[in-house]
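Internal tracking record. Fields below are filled automatically when a chain is submitted to the structure queue. Please do not edit lines marked as system-generated. If the sequence contains nonstandard residues, flag them in the REMARKS field before resubmitting.
Queue: standard
Priority: normal
Entity type: single polypeptide chain
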Amino acid sequence: MSSISTEAKVGLFVLVALIILGYMSFRVSEQGFGLKKGYLVNVVFDNATGLERDASVQIAGVEVGRVEKISLANGKALVTMRILPAVKLEKDVEAKIKSYGILGDKYIDIVPGTEVGTYIAEGGDIIRTEKQADIDKLLSKLGYIAADVMAVTASLKKVIGTDEGEANLKAIIENTRSITENLDKVVKQNDEKLNLMIANLGEASIEMRKAFSTLNSIVAKIDSGEGTIGKLIENQDAFDNLNQTLASLRDITEKINEGKGTIGKLINEEDTVDNLNASLKSLEKSMDGIERYVSKADQFKTFLGYRGEYLFDSSESKGYFDLTIRPNEDKFYILGVVADPKGRRTITDDTVGGITTRTETWERDELLFTAQIGKRFKNVALRGGIFESTGGAGVDYFAFNDKLQLTFEAFDFDSDRNAHLKAYAEYRLLKHIYLSAGWDDFISNEGNDSPFVGFAIRFEDEDLKYLLGSVPIPN
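SYSTEM-GENERATED OUTPUT FOLLOWS
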C-alpha cells in the first residue's frame, strides 16, 4: 500500500474543513441560531427606518427573538418577529423601535403587559406601539431653529453692538439691581410685619384662652345653681314663677287682641287709630313750623366790630365802629359811625354883588355815618348806601374760606373834586382779629391820598353773650 504524501494530507484536511464550514454556514443562515424554532408575531409601525432583518428583539434588555421579515402594508411597516417558544407575550404588550446610542443599530424593545393569562398566539399581532422619533425631521427642525437663532443673534448684535446699545444694556442692568434692592427691602419689611402679626396672634390667643376660661367658670357656676340663670335652671320655684309671668303676659296679649282696655281699643278700633293719626299729623305740622322758625332764627346773626387805620401821609388815625345785621346767608345791613381826623366836609356858597363864592370847611369834631345794604353772590358781595355821610357803592371779594377779603369802595362824588376811591385787603389772623392794608383816596386831587395799615376786631352776638356772661357783676 502506497503511503499518502504530506501534501495530500494537508489538502484532504483543508477540504474537510471547508465542507464543515460550509455546512455550518448553511445551518446558521437557515436556522438563525435556533430561532427558527420560535413562533411568529406581527407588529405594524408608522416608520421602521434603520430597522433591519435579523435585528434583535428584547424584553428588559434580554434578547427574546429576532426580526424575521420587514414588509410594506397599507403604507406602513409590517414587521414579523420570531419569538422564543419559552417567552409568552401578553396581549397588551407595547413594542418600541430603539437604537444602541445615537448612531447605533436599531432593535425592537417590548414592554411587558399586565393582562396575565391572555397571550398572543402564533401569527398574532401586537396592537400597542410607540411612534419612533424621525431623526431627519428632528435635524430639519434643528436647522430651522439654528437659522432663527442666528437671525436673533444678528439683530441683538445690531442693538447691543453700538455705544447706545451698550449704554441701554447698562441701564437695564442698573434698573434690575435697583429693583432687586427695593424688593429685598420690601421683603424685610414684610418679615417685620409678619413677625408683629404673629406676636399679635399670640397675644390674641392668650386673651382668647382667658375668655374661654372665664366662660367655663360662668358655665360651672350656672351648673352649680349660682346666679340668676343658675337659679332659674336649678331652682324649680324660680322656674315656676317665670312660667306664671309668661302666662300672665299671654293673658294680657289675648285681651289686647280682643280689643279690651285702652291699648286694645287703640290697636283694634279704626276710629281711635284715625284720631291718633290726625293728632300726630297736627303735631308734625306744628313741629315743622317750629323747626322752620328755629332754622330762620339760627340764620339771623349780628356782628359788632371796630376797625382802626393808620394813615402814613398825615400820621393820623381813622376809626370805624360798625354793626352788621345778616338776616340770611346772602343778605346783610351795615350801620356805623366813622371818626375821620379831617372831620366832616361842609361846602357853603356866598353871593356878593352877583358873584358866588364857594367855601369848603372841615369840622373835625363831627362824626361820619354809614348805612349800607348788601347782597352776596357766592364769593362776591355788592354794597350800596351811605359811606362816611356820602352816597357810594362798594364791592368785596372773598377767598380762602372768607379768610381773605379784597375791597373796593367809591363815594363822595363831587364835580369840583375827584371821587373818594379806596382799596384795601383784610386778612383774618385769629378768630376775632383781622389785619388790613391798602390805599385811601388814591386819586385825590387835593393831596388826601395816603397808604394805610390797620387792624380790626369783630364779635358775633353769641360771642358777646358769652363775654358778657363771664364778666363778674359786683354786689
